[in-house]
Amino acid sequence: MTEAARESIRPSSLLSLEDQRRMRANEANWDARTPIHVASRFYGLADELDPERWFAPFEWDDLGPLDGRDLVHLQCHLGTETIPLAARGARAVGLDLSGASVTAARELAARSGIAVEYVQGNVYDAVQTLGERRFDVVYTGKGALCYLPDLDRWAREIARLLRPGGRLYIVEFHPLLNSLGLTPELDEGTALLLRHDYLGGRGPVRRDGTHTYTDGPAVTGATECFEWMHGIAEVVNAVTGAGLRVARLRESHELPWPRWPDMVRTASGWWRLPDPAPRIPLLYALLARA
Ligand SMILES: C[S@@+](CC[C@H](N)C(=O)[O-])C[C@H]1O[C@@H](n2cnc3c(N)ncnc32)[C@H](O)[C@@H]1O
Description:
- The protein is of the alpha/beta class.
- The protein has one domain (3-254, 281-289): Vaccinia Virus protein VP39 (Rossmann fold, 3-Layer(aba) Sandwich).
- The protein is 30% helix and 23% strand.
- It has a 7-stranded mixed sheet with strand order 3-2-1-4-5-13-10, sandwiched between helices. A two-stranded antiparallel ribbon has the order 6-7.
- The longest helix is centred in the first third of the chain and has 23 residues, at 17-39.
- The structure holds S-adenosylmethionine.
- The site of S-adenosylmethionine has 18 residues, from α2.
């Protein structure tokens, strides 16, 4: 094989054929979810809401100054987090697998008057798709890693996206959150049980994505989607295995939206379990340096 041919191979094509098929199913499912999300109260795109409401205050501390920094937001969906990052001065690029999401994100950025570049692509091909550009900050999370079958390959792609000294910042729902579910007989309360895997390793979970996580009508058409569980150790080992140095790991008992019915609002505007529920991590943030 020639050097040119080798370079033109998309890294995503090195994943198993089954995982490539699952990612195509996810792409179609996210395209189908997008119009529902755009119209939803959950994302509130028609409302005059604080664009920074998806961010915890500690995120800005960890990210540090963004002014003039090159930043890529992986799995940006509608760009609801990309816009605030750009508004803080970053030269922001959002990348997402779903063409419908990228189109909606471009429209939202144009309406907000904030300059953001959006690119459609698979995170596993990010270096090629972004033309070998390098970034000071890679930001991702809040419902992103569960769509990735292989974190080692993902972390290696991120390491190649970063300039020396650049930062990876993952702010992601905690695997403990994903493993909890309401007890079937108490579905109006916060009686939570461990109902799903915390650790990965059992392969993908096939879901019927008819009901997305926002308000609005059911998804029609491409309802099949796949998720992969990733424990904290898997994330940390993928990041350090790719040569990045973990600078900080946080666990937070607050979420940007009320995941269960009787969660209570905190002073930061986020949500936590009501007292006297045990204080458990619902979200984590990992800062790593190249
Ligand atoms: C829940 S959203 C996360 C974004 C943001 N935190 C939010 O809540 O709007 C998940 C996004 O990941 C994207 N996605 C899933 N698999 C991907 C992949 N392999 N490469 C790039 N984007 C992917 C989907 O298209 C979707 O827009």
